[in-house]
Amino acid sequence: MAEEKKETEKKVAAPAAGTEGAKQEGEAAASANAACTPRRTERQRPAECAGCGKANKKEMWYYRNGGFYCNKRCYQKKLLDLKKKAEAAKDKK
Q1: What are the residue boundaries of the structural domains of the chain, listed by start?
Q2: Could you read off the pLDDT tens digit of each residue along the chain, which spans 93 residues?
Q3: Which of 3, 25, 27, 71 makes the best surface tag, with the fewest CB within 10 Å?
Q4: Please, which contacts does 70-76 make with residues 24 or more away whose CB atoms are closer than 8 Å?
Q5: Cα angle for residues 40, 46, 52 (degrees, 5° grid)
Q6: pTM here?
Q7: What phi and psi values does residue 17 have, to the nearest 5 degrees?
């Protein structure tokens, strides 16, 4: 019986680091962890408006081009500021 245990321990032993077996086990563990993560997560609430910097306290936000704004006016004002900065940089060159 002792010999059987030794043989099973050899089969169960993890492969040495840097070998293909270790890489495959690592990939399997990563995919198992990915399977356990929830697909849907809670929306991240932005802390402040990207245009004016005011704290976003209300539930509705105006989302455009990767930024959250408190309203459409702030978004348009930010666009105008960006255009002016771009023109000023172009004139400097």
Answers
A1: 2-36, 46-93
A2: 566 666 655 555 555 555 666 556 666 666 666 666 666 666 676 788 888 888 887 777 788 888 888 889 999 999 999 999 999 999 987
A3: 3
A4: 74/49, 74/50, 75/51
A5: 155
A6: 0.48
A7: -65, 140
